[in-house]
Amino acid sequence: MKKGILGGTFDPIHRAHLEIASCALSEYGLDEILFMPAGDPYFKEGSRVTSPSLRLEMTKACIEEAGEPRFRCSDLEILDRNRTYTSDTILKLRHLYPDDILYFILGLDSLEALHTWHAPEVLLDNAVILCAMRQKERSGNETFFHGGTGGETKETGREEDEETRFLHAVLHLKERFPQAFPDIRQLHCPMIAMSSTLIREKAAAGEDLMPYVTPAVAHFIDEHHLYGI
């Protein structure tokens, strides 16, 4: 089975998360996507984060509303009372699903910062990395460590910048972790300008959240008085 992992604080989960997951199902033929809210996200130290139980419940409500049978919510990190690291999580998943191919989904900013994560070589060794990029006309499913270094794009502007950033990030990881055998690919998605931070700010200002979150999530935020509502 080809299993995708989409992790994050999900504070709140929003439409872009669903779109990225849908693109992964379509482009790479994944059998399911695990939405995995972070338990104790060490990278959010000093920031106010909604309780794990509420974020898990909100994520479940969003996925149930989406109606995609290949979307599942995982409580693996939420149930871990210790500080959660992606490297530990991927090893747990490898133990739970030894015969599955794991696909870890992240954004370009995260790919560029991956060398700073805790034991990134563990993630690189145990999962295919799918990096969400702006959608454009390509053959798809390019692998930049197994079988080539990609190619130059003839496009200009932001897309070319993203392509260059991606290639530099991949080469940097290869140089930093030569002992690993990573498989890093592009995941092509429509550009969606939204973030959980933006949504929290709009919620606090009393603005309409429907362009950014599903009805179930908007109702959950209102019901639990999250983000200053």
Care to describe what's here?
Helix 1 links the parallel strand 1 (2-8) and strand 2 (32-37). By secondary structure, the protein is an alpha/beta fold. It is built from eight helices and six strands; from the N terminus they run βαβαβαβααβαβαα. Mean pLDDT is 87; it is low at 137-157. It starts with a strand and ends in a 6-residue tail after the last helix. The relative contact order is 0.18. Helix 2 runs antiparallel to helix 8 (215-223). It has a single domain, classed as Rossmann fold. The chain is globular and about 50 Å long.
Question: What class, by secondary structure content?
Answer: alpha/beta
Give the CA-based shape. Answer: globular
Write down how many β-strands occur, each being a DSSP E stretch of 2 or more residues. 6
Top-tier CATH class: Alpha Beta
Beta-strand content: 15-25%
CATH architecture: 3-Layer(aba) Sandwich
At the fold tier of CATH, the topology name is: Rossmann fold
Distance between the termini: 42 Å
Mean pLDDT: 87
The H/E string reads EHEHEHEHHEHEHH
- Percentage of residues in helical conformation: 25-40%
Largest sheet: 6 strands, parallel
Total domain modules: 1
Number of helices: 8
The CATH superfamily label reads HUPs
Strand order within the widest beta sheet: 3-2-1-4-5-6
Residue ranges: pLDDT <50 for 5 or more in a row?
137-157
